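Troubleshooting: if your tokenizer reports a length mismatch, compare your output against this known-good record of 376 residues.
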Amino acid sequence: MAKKDNVLAVLSLSGGNDGLNTVIPYTNGLYRDYRPTIGVAADKVIPLTDELGLYPTMGPLKKYWDEGKLAIFLGIGYPHPSYSHFRSMDIWHTCEPDTIGVDGWLGRVIKEFDPSADNVLTGVNYGRGLPRALAKEGVPVASVGNLETYGLLTGIDGQDQRAQALDIFARMYSPTVGRGYATDYIRRTGTDALKGADVLSTAPSKYTSKVTYNNTAVGQYMKNIAQTHLADFGTRVLYTTSPYNSFDTHASQLAAHDRLWSDVSTTVDTFYTDLRDHNASDNVLLFMFSEFGRRVSDNGSGTDHGAASVAFAVGEHVKGGFYGTYPSLDPSQHAEGGNLQFNMDFRSVYATILDEWLGLNPTPIIGGSFEKVRFL
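Known-good structure output:
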């Protein structure tokens, strides 16, 4: 059987996930000092080493750690961090921390794979709107609210509503790329997405499974990603985002993290179990990230916007383990504002994915040369 092309799936954890309470330095006394109200008790942590462990509801991911197929990136971020959701996410999406970027890094990837835009399903996003990561002029991306409505804006009834939705998208993109470009881009993308709708609509009917996904946005979108992958449409990039700012845990963080990480961890396990049941997991790499971490000190019931965080990669070809160094909790080593200091540039992880997994030259895609992280 011919080897299938490698596929990248991305799950964006929107809102700024608290890395310090996700991969927990549970034996570090400073962690207890800084987290008097939301610190996780050592006996509740899922230990990975004598020093670091996972949040209590992340149990389903422990299996992949034990299999050596879960990579955890510590201290991930970028220089001169922004504490704005929009700006920080834009930086992760465009790889341009110093200027406002127009093209998304995955838009550039799709252009490399399909320069003539022959396959409008080379890249598919699940969720409303189009993440900047996938945006590039001349690159069609189907952006799917769900597999019953197929395609950017196609689930909207009536010309007035459709025009209003186009206007909203244009407003989102106009401040940075210009209204004319935004409107033209969105209209073209919507038209191209419609071309793929008939093809995409066949995915659910081709799909049978022994697993049941969570009835949540993350669960259903990851199910859609599995359905699309299993339908063999030639899709190389599959993207989805947790509900908008769901990981923005300024208050009631423990309850929120219980729910969020239970959902994400269970869904990731279900997703890979599903692919394995179909002998279709070997060529899929899943990457999970968030736009920034949270402050070292809690605020009484949650955490405020911070800097360095953690990210994850899961896959059959991942060399599992920790990559990077856990940022010091010593106050003398903090970044400005009481934040963890990053020590791994996210573009190093991108460079590895691009070169080692997707077979592309990373330099023009991420705008420079970055040392690779040898997790593949």
